[in-house]
């Protein structure tokens, strides 16, 4: 069977952190990486909470880490130098993304400024750019044509904060937007088995179509379509170099663990 491209979403709020994660992704055998430009406009803070039950021993206390990203001002980042550093420092094909706050991102500026960032990203000659489906149609059309002219491929994405609808609605959304990019990426919140099944069934329904997809959830059971993406005929599967039990709760999966799972399931 045709295998999906394994994309590692790079971590970090600084160029040095992103490049370090990119090197790890390369060593892990990733096919491409995603750089979240909006994260480079933010600062990360880790808040550690310790909880101990009155009846528990001190050694049994639970430690919970909360990561908070705080958007900075627009002049916090020199975009031109960042794009040069990314081009010089990453050997794999790159998807450049600048996610707006309305879809869970951290970009601090207005929409006009964000579209200018995406324009510069395309003009940098990047392999892929992520263009949200809900960008103003006229503005999106200009970015679409610019990307096609320069040979940059497009991920047409939609990140919905609501829980996943029925599989039929998901399939309909993908088909309705099939001409907006080279790959249609749909991501919903997922809170368990029902949402996971909806996402899986939608991906299964679309597997024999000509539409290249990347369908996933954020939350419990959101990783089902990632793990079984070869079976579902998905084009790109998004992963991370992060490790930990918490990934399953977020619907995410480590890139190396994903490849081990594929081998065990005899997908590769």
Descriptive notes:
The chain is an alpha/beta fold and 268 residues long. It has one domain: Alpha-Beta Barrel (TIM Barrel), CATH 3.20.20. It is built from 10 helices and 10 strands. The protein has helices at residues 15-27, 79-89, 111-123, 137-150, 167-176, 193-206, 224-227, 229-232, 246-250, 255-264; strands spanning 5-9, 32-36, 42-51, 62-71, 94-97, 128-132, 153-163, 183-191, 213-220, 236-239. Strands 9-8-7-6-5-2-1-10 form an 8-stranded parallel sheet. The protein has a two-stranded antiparallel sheet with strand order 3-4. Helix 3 runs parallel beside helix 4 (137-150).
Give a short overview.
This protein has 268 residues and is of the alpha/beta class. It has 10 helices and 10 strands.
Question: Topology, pairings included?
Answer:
Layout: E1 5-9, H1 15-27, E2 32-36, E3 42-51, E4 62-71, H2 79-89, E5 94-97, H3 111-123, E6 128-132, H4 137-150, E7 153-163, H5 167-176, E8 183-191, H6 193-206, E9 213-220, H7 224-227, H8 229-232, E10 236-239, H9 246-250, H10 255-264
Parallel strand pairs: 1-2, 1-10, 2-5, 5-6, 6-7, 7-8, 8-9
Antiparallel strand pairs: 3-4
